[in-house]
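4.2 Preliminary Data

To establish feasibility before requesting continued support, the project team ran the inverse folding procedure on a target of 212 residues. The structure was first converted into the token representation described in Section 3, and no sequence information of any kind was made available to the design step. The complete token record follows.
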């Protein structure tokens, strides 16, 4: 029974820790500029950010120009940026609590679909019990497990977005390859028809000259 109670405590604490995670993941279409806000309640927290440019709004467009992402703190000061990238993943330590802004800028003339993910974690529940020498090791292990699970989920989401982008690029490249083959075939047929026509004209002229 004691073992079951300890497992129940561990499970309960882990669930609480997961609920304390602040996360937001969206997929949106950008024209020129889009900004998003995310509140960070504690200084010293680590903010994990990732984005992937999934596709453009035209099947004929393929570019590695990427987009710009600028992160600003509650005072409007820039704390991190990512320039001309189709995908990026980074983390930053919060120096000022409050609402942080994440602004994307699209330099392409086409609309772009972007997958954006931001996570913030805080272990306030563990801090409150850190003084208990019996529970401190348990909370430390739970914190490590929670962090590992969180990193796996964050990485998985980023990889899924990368996979979606690659699938769309492969489909677009295949479509362009088919169109290229059709165009080359049509050009070859047209050239053959013109060649046959010219040969017939040349043959008719020679035949007319020989009769004269």
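Position-by-position output of the design step:
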């Amino acid at each position: 029974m004691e073992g079951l109670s300890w497992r129940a405590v561990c499970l309960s604490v882990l669930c609480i820790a997961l609920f304390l995670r602040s996360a937001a993941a969206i997929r949106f279409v950008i024209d020129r500029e889009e900004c998003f806000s995310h509140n960070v309640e504690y200084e010293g927290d680590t903010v994990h950010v990732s984005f992937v440019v999934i596709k453009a709004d035209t099947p004929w467009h393929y570019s590695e120009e990427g987009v710009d992402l600028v992160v600003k703190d509650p005072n409007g000061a820039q704390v991190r940026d990512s320039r001309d990238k189709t995908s990026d993943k980074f983390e930053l330590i919060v120096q000022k609590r409050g609402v942080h802004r994440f602004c994307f800028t699209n330099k392409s003339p086409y609309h772009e679909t972007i997958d954006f993910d931001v996570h913030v974690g805080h272990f306030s529940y563990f801090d409150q019990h850190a003084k208990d020498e019996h529970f401190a090791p348990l909370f430390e292990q739970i914190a490590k497990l929670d962090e590992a699970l969180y990193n796996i989920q964050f990485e998985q989401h980023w990889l899924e977005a990368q996979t979606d982008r690659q699938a769309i690029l492969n489909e677009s490249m295949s479509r362009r390859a088919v169109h290229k083959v059709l165009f080359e075939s049509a050009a070859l047929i047209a050239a053959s028809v013109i060649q046959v026509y010219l040969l017939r004209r040349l043959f008719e002229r020679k035949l007319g000259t020989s009769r004269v």
